[in-house]
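User: I'm putting together a teaching handout on how multi-component assemblies are represented. Below are the sequence lines for each component of a complex, exactly as they appear in our records. Could you produce the 3D structure of the whole assembly as structure tokens, so the students can see both representations side by side? Please keep the chain order the same as the input.
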Amino acid sequence: MKGKVIKYAKDNIDTDVIIPGQYLKIHDYKELASHAMEGLDPDFHSKVNEGDFILSGKNFGCGSSREHAPIALSNSGIKAVLALSFARIFYRNSVDGAFLLPIEIDEKTYQNISEGDELEIDIKSNTIQNITQNKTYPMKPFSEIIRKIIESGGLFNYDLD
Amino acid sequence: MGKTLFEKIWDSHIVAGKEQGPSLIYVDRHLVHEVTSPQAFDGLRLNNRKVRRPDLTIATMDHNVPTNDRSLPILDQTSAIQIETLKKNCRDFGIKLFDINSPNQGIVHVIGPQLGITLPGTTIVCGDSHTSTHGAFGALAFGIGTSEVEHVLASQTIWLEKPKSFEIKVMGKRKNPHAVTAKDIILSIIKNIGTAGGTGTVVEYSGEGVKDLSMEQRMTICNMSIEGGARAGLIAPDEKTFDYLRNRKYTPKNYESLVDYWKKNLKTDPDAKFDKTFTLSIDNIAPQVSWGTNPGMTCDVSDSIPTPQDFSKGDKNQEKAAEKALEYMDLKSGTPITEITIDRVFIGSCTNARLDDLIEASKVINGQKVSENVRAMVVPGSQMVKKQAEEMGIDKIFTKANFEWRESGCSMCLGMNPDILSPGERCASTSNRNFEGRQGTGGRTHLVSPVMAAAAAIEGHFVDVRKINLN
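Assistant: Of course. Below is the structure of the complete assembly, with chains in the same order as your input.
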């Protein structure tokens, strides 16, 4: 999985700024996507490209349980969010509907990656390659259930073996 | 080794799973509302699935509903569609719905306990993060996303990794319990542990500071567990819990034998170990006011707005966040909280719109009127709360003082119904989140208790309610 980084160097990006409340009545995913990150970065929609990654700090996706948040990001083209930590409901929502990969990284990696860097994420080897900077970083491996849900393509394809 | 209350409830609900791996947990109560359920029902239809236990599934509409005259049509077409969709889904799948005109309609986390649907020792889920509210009754209750809503509708179960346990001991006694409320306790806790302090945990609140609280106050505490990052918050049930739930509309027929069982089983063993603990002494805590854009950015009403450096304690990200928050909030470090003037007051939400909250807030008024620069509204949490308050004449106290008295719903907590702030408006709000744009694009939210909100409405700025006679 290859893409470019959009970096928000802050903690506590909440689901209200990822997709503000007034848009939760929208059922069309593309229309929902056109309002993604509107509460934080009104330019997001014009700068995001298919396959991009978001990089951010601690507690990404805190607040409301709205699954509209990963849906809006995913349909904007975001395929993974790399963050120091995630709020639990957002984390599960991201993989349950196979919307995007929530990837936990360490502080050094977070500091090192810059806006616009091209990354290649390999969840088999749990590594992130920074093609722009020619560096490799570790990512925190997924737990058993999260890995299986991802491999199954979502919660409804997951079965306990 | 003994078990915590959370572990006991968890263990008694495991349907399948391995010792160290994920568990399939049985769900005793599934609460459904109009915003996070439509895609879940669509998914059921697509796969030709039924609702596994319609008898354990309860729905109401709360997020979208206007809070003005209920005989008027809903003007926002997308809201009207979402509300109609919930009606159709409940009809098609045989789910009990408390419709917009039902005397039992209200915010899902207010009506669950009021109807006796919330019970100790049960597991409760809802597509809403504030489901943690029900933990006040010793239930394991947490918010889920829409995919999980579909999974629970289809199977009455949910796949989970076992959260860690976190004990928050609330010690001591408040000197003025009318002025220093449950809201101030939970805001103090979040201020101390941080907005991610409880991530990956289920919190158990214990100690005399919690025992002393009424059930409605305990709900305020558990409600905001999610604002401290926790998945759920719970409080061991006691006589207050059992009394609250006795003789409610859906209280089980064998209630007293359940109470006997709960008394024996629903408490943390003395030798149980928590993964994490935090202790808050409440002897000297003050009414709290949030000044920033997350609930951890909170200080005493008697303090001034901190500098980003003082607030951050050396964390550069926090310092930047505080600078940005002050800019968004249009506030300056060093300004006394009591000098902040407000435009709007919102007394409502699943955090603070129960009867206790409205009674306490009404005591502040004492024949005075809302400041002429302020527009203030009171939105009861449910139609039952509204009716009870009206029977006590509480509505008249508010309306005589020029507060608007509304129909029940989530209202101005979350900016997705007609009750919103205009850009730049500053609001003293009894809700739970002060995120940017939460109450409407560009709106500025200060989280406070109901008494603090009512006092701010009267004076037009924040006041220290410890200086008001509230008895």
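A couple of points students might notice: The first strand of chain A starts at residue 2 and ends at 8. Strands of chain A lie at 2-8, 53-56, 80-83, 101-104, 118-122, 127-130, 135-138.
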